[in-house]
TrEMBL record:
Domain of life: Eukaryota
UniProt keyword Transmembrane helix present: no
One of the record's GO molecular function terms: oxidoreductase activity
Organism of origin: Acorus calamus (Sweet flag)
UniProt keyword terms in alphabetical order: ATP-binding, Carbohydrate metabolism, Kinase, Magnesium, Metal-binding, NADP, Nucleotide-binding, Oxidoreductase, Transferase
Protein's recorded name: NADP-dependent oxidoreductase domain-containing protein
Listed Pfam families: Aldo_ket_red (PF00248), GWD1_pHisD (PF22973), PPDK_N (PF01326)
PANTHER family noted in UniProt: PHOSPHOGLUCAN, WATER DIKINASE, CHLOROPLASTIC (PTHR47453:SF1)
Ranges where the Alpha-glucan water dikinase phosphohistidine-like domain occurs: 532-572
Similarity-based family: Belongs to the PEP-utilizing enzyme family.
Cofactor: Mg(2+)
Any coiled-coil regions, as ranges: none
Region of interest called Disordered, as start-end residue ranges on this chain: 308-336
Sequence ranges of Basic and acidic residues compositional bias: 313-322
Length: 941
């Protein structure tokens, strides 16, 4: 029998066995309940075999499976990680899904009693109640974490958008989903989302409901009480075709000297070190075989071969019985969606009869926007229909409020020095894009309820797949109105984020990163393009996108500038001419900050460990970021006397700051006796391969070791003398391989907001997390790509006063759109700057300002759905709150004077810093009341 090791599940601290045990079949669904004594023996055997991650639910039985585990765990509770679920009930014999707070709390209390435990390690929402906003359900779960009733929160069978919304309320530790060789739909969106957010993945039914263990003969053993008897894949019309999959898997298993179930389980284990399968069984013999699957090794070629056996086209039948879907949710969603679609089609047909988007654009161009009232009113009615369904009601209300405000405001001749028609169109476009985003998510939720039926109908009627997916939201997403606005603005539908010329083959991708592979740096895509000097454009014109699809697979030339975007196919004779010979690497261009440390060898670097005041921060003891903050502090005083040619003040302030210097992490490692383990892992991570999970495993061990370290008591005491103890703080990275020319990518290392010295445990954990972010997979790969030895990377910690930002911004003192040195561009978001840094869906206010002529151009209006804030009265727990934004109440959107004055002030500040630092800068800051604060400045890529 193989060895069952341990793994970190998610990024919140939960550690479990690398393989778990699904307990459902012991009590329910897979035939009659099994004898209690035998199942308790099985559970005890699993625990003695180091399979300690046990999974149950209140619906299994119902209730009897939890009672069984409660009996089995008497006296040995501390040896296991216990997961259970809530959310599905069969009251009165009718299956229902619930997520309202009262039900959540009552379910948890009942499960604690049945399991006979004081706390549940991992508590999942079994299925998502679409009538209750996930934020409401998560709010109640968060309270129960704070009360100590549950330790970690999970979701089961949730969409990517739901996961993001839930994670914004409280960190999600794990997502449970069906994942096996023949069920892989989660790989499209859900798995990448989990990996982006640091959420663990728990794979249930990794053996395909037993089919990958026994093949088609399993059907002969199923009793009438076994729900698999009714699953589509087990039906006669599908069974014969699916049998081929099993035969191919079994043949490979024979060649490798293992069973088909071990091979199928090994495939799941090879998906990454963030995946924990929980195969169920009722026999000790089968449990032993499942554990042995951990010893089965697969090459990349074997993985590809296995996946070819069970391709999407090869598997016949749905994975689940449509009759198992929650009946109470269907009528509400279907009624609202159907009404919405019918209303949209009728209204749009009438609009098209009048001339459609061209007719609307013509009237707007002549400054008559009265013709837009009816379509905007229709859109508002449609949003109210969505709101009635219970889908994101606060978001619906905010969009409705904006649409009403823009109608009442009308179109002015001028807004400040800008053309009133352009401002009207850009402001309205922001809201329409937001409504499209909302309704696309609404459509995705509907498709989760009955996707196969929709797709089958689409196939029968030969409707294109993209039309099938948007059957209920295509009209309300305001594509006709957006098309008209593009005409008003003279927009081509292209948005150029990074200009230039590129050559390559056009491919259509559903995602940017392959499953299981994280990019070396997690950034906003526009910033990633700028950092890597990759030409980057987006397109929102459906006709142009259709034309691009026609070029798929062809070699093309892409030319992008602020004036035009051209994509054209190239003749094969000209292809060789566009690629110069591969240049050799010139060591002289590598960042200088670490070149000098190459001679340090493998010895642990302690430096001048300790806390230093920001005025003493230099790059060699605290990193370029902290050194930049030192420079900013001195420049802030000078800025008070500086004004632009147009009288705009360049004055700014800086937050109070201190630094935990280089060597402090190493001192903590020495104090805890972890130096030898740390040095061994550093040597391993230098050469660990990205394939097969080797690098992931070493990174996980390294991060776990470093994140457990804490700053010394002396350091905390010194910080308390420099910063008020009750002040809200943000703990930020300041590495020696960060914010440098050639390595100035943002988002590579962690920042932890909203902590306080008055809560020392949370503060210490935050410092540990920042230290550990030096060894994430993406950070390791980034240094590899730059040629930086891992042993030479060091991390200082910059501790700054947390500012209650009204607005946050990033200034680019050289326009990234067209490399214009005469213009400054700003990206501005409501609330905290994490909205800009985290890749949140939506658009920022984008403002372009002339350094010498004072001219301000509003390029886009913000439409992020939420803003992040820290409440002074709330706990200092490293978390932020999110509030829905109504831009009809935001001065930067509605007040042209405010927009003009703020833009000119930002331009003056940016130009001042560019001159003082001697090169174009990316400047991060925020507006607090009437004061501009600058928190960071780094060289612009």
């Amino acid at each position: 029998m193989g060895s069952v090791g341990r793994m970190k599940l998610g990024s919140q601290g939960l550690e479990v066995s690398k393989q778990g045990l699904g307990c459902m079949g012991m009590s329910a669904f897979y035939g009659p309940p099994k004898p209690e004594e035998g199942m308790i023996q099985l559970i005890h055997h699993a625990i003695s075999s180091n399979v300690t991650f046990l999974d149950t639910s209140d619906i299994y039985g119902p209730h009897t499976n939890e009672i069984l585990l409660g009996k089995a765990l008497k006296g040995i509770r501390e040896k296991v990680e216990l997961a259970t679920k809530f959310g599905i009930s069969y009251e009165g014999g009718v299956r229902d899904v619930r997520g309202d707070p009262a039900y959540v709390r009552a379910s948890c209390e009942a499960s604690l009693k049945r399991l006979d435990v004081d706390c549940i390690d991992l508590y999942y929402q079994h299925r998502i109640d679409t009538r209750v906003p996930i934020e409401v359900t998560m709010g109640e779960l968060k309270k129960m974490v704070e009360e100590g009733k549950i330790k970690y929160i999970g979701l089961s069978e949730a969409s990517a958008s739901t996961i993001r919304r839930a994670h914004a309320v409280h960190p999600i530790t794990a997502i449970q989903l069906e994942w096996s060789l023949w069920t892989r739909d989660a790989e499209k969106e859900i798995i990448p989302t989990c990996r982006e957010l640091g959420i663990g993945i728990v794979a249930y039914s990794p053996l395909g409901r037993g089919f990958l263990s026994s093949g088609p003969k399993i059907v002969d053993t199923l009793t009438e009480q076994d729900f698999r008897k009714h699953l589509p894949r087990f039906q006669p019309e599908n069974l014969e075709k699916n049998a081929t999959i099993y035969e191919q898997v079994n043949a490979m298993a024979t060649r490798k000297g293992c069973t088909s179930s071990q091979l199928a389980l090994a495939w799941v284990h090879h998906q990454g070190n963030d995946v924990c399968p929980i195969p169920g069984t009722t026999k000790i013999e089968n449990l032993n075989k499942n554990v042995a699957a951990l010893s089965v090794k697969l090459t990349p070629e074997e993985m590809v071969e296995l996946e070819s056996y069970a391709s999407e086209d090869s598997v016949k039948g749905d994975r689940a019985d449509p009759g198992q879907r929650p009946p109470r949710q269907l009528p509400r969603a279907t009624t609202q969606g159907g009404s919405l679609a019918l209303q949209s089609v009728r209204f749009l047909n009438a609009l098209e009869d009048l001339g459609g988007s061209s007719w609307l654009a013509q009237h707007a161009s002549s400054r008559d926007v009265s013709t837009w009232n009816d379509p905007l009113n229709a859109l508002t009615i449609g949003l109210r229909q969505v709101e009635l369904s219970g889908w994101k009601p606060e978001e619906c209300k905010a969009i409705e409020s904006e649409l009403l405000a823009w109608q009442q405001r009308g179109l002015a001749d001028k807004e400040g020095d800008e053309d009133g028609k352009d401002i009207w169109a850009r402001r309205l476009k922001g809201t329409l894009d937001r409504s499209r985003r909302l309704t696309e998510e609404f459509s995705d939720t509907l498709l989760q309820l009955f996707p196969q039926k929709v797709q089958k109908l689409g196939s029968v009627f030969r409707i294109p797949e993209n039309s099938v997916r948007t059957y209920a939201e295509a009209e309300i997403r305001a594509s006709l109105l957006l098309k008209a606005l593009r005409s008003v603005l003279g927009s081509s539908g292209w948005d150029v984020l990074v200009p230039g010329v590129a050559f390559g083959t056009i491919q259509q991708m559903k995602r940017f990163a392959p499953i299981g592979i994280m990019p070396p740096v997690t950034l906003d895509l526009g910033e990633l393009g700028e950092v890597e000097r990759v030409v980057f454009v987006t397109c929102e014109d459906e006709d142009k996108v259709t034309d691009l699809r026609g070029l798929e697979g062809k070699f093309v030339r892409l030319e992008a500038s602020s004036a035009r975007v051209d994509v054209s196919a190239m003749l094969s004779d000209n292809i060789k001419e566009v690629f110069p010979k591969e240049p050799s690497v010139d060591p002289s261009v590598l960042p200088s900050s670490w070149q000098s440390s190459q001679s340090n060898g493998c010895t642990l670097k302690k430096g001048n460990a300790g806390v230093i005041e920001i005025g003493d921060a230099t790059a060699d003891v605290s990193g370029a970021k902290a050194a930049s903050c030192n420079r900013l502090a001195s420049l802030a005083a000078l800025s008070e006397k500086v004004f632009s040619d147009h009288g705009a003040p360049a004055s700014f302030r800086v937050p109070a700051s201190v630094v935990i210097s280089f060597g402090s992490m190493e001192s903590a490692l020495e104090e805890s006796g972890s130096v030898e383990a740390f040095q061994s892992l550093i040597e391993q991570v230098e050469t660990a391969k990205t394939e097969g999970g080797e690098l992931d495993e070493v990174c996980s061990k390294l991060q776990a070791l470093v994140s457990s370290q804490r700053p010394s008591d002396e350091s905390i005491e010194k910080i308390a003398k420099l910063i008020p103890q009750n002040a809200r703080l943000i703990v930020r990275s300041s590495a020696n391989v960060e914010d440098l020319a050639g390595m100035s990518a943002a988002g590579l290392y962690d920042s932890i907001p909203n902590v306080s010295l008055s809560v020392p445990t949370v503060f210490g954990e935050a410092v540990g997390r920042v230290w550990a972010s030096l060894y994430t997979r993406r950070a390791i790969l980034s240094r590899r790509a730059a040629g930086v030895p891992q042993k030479d990377a060091m991390m200082a910690v910059l501790i700054q006063e947390m500012l209650s930002a009204d607005l946050s911004f990033v200034l680019h003192t050289r326009s990234p759109t067209d490399n214009d040195h005469k213009r400054v561009e700003a990206e501005v978001a409501p609330g905290l700057g994490e909205t800009l840094a985290s890749g949140t869906r939506g658009t920022a206010w984008r403002l372009s300002m002339g350094k010498f002529d004072g001219r301000v151009s509003t390029l886009t209006f913000a439409n992020f759905s939420e803003e992040m804030l820290v409440l002074s009265a709330g706990p200092a727990d490293g978390e932020v709150i999110r509030l829905t934004v109504d831009y009809s109440k935001k001065p930067l959107t509605v007040n042209s004077n405010f927009r003009q004055q703020l833009s000119q002030r930002l331009c003056a500040v940016g130009f001042f810093l560019e001159q003082k630092f001697g090169s174009p800068q990316d400047v991060e800051g925020c507006l607090v009341g009437k004061d501009i604060y600058i928190v960071q400045s780094r060289p612009q890529p």
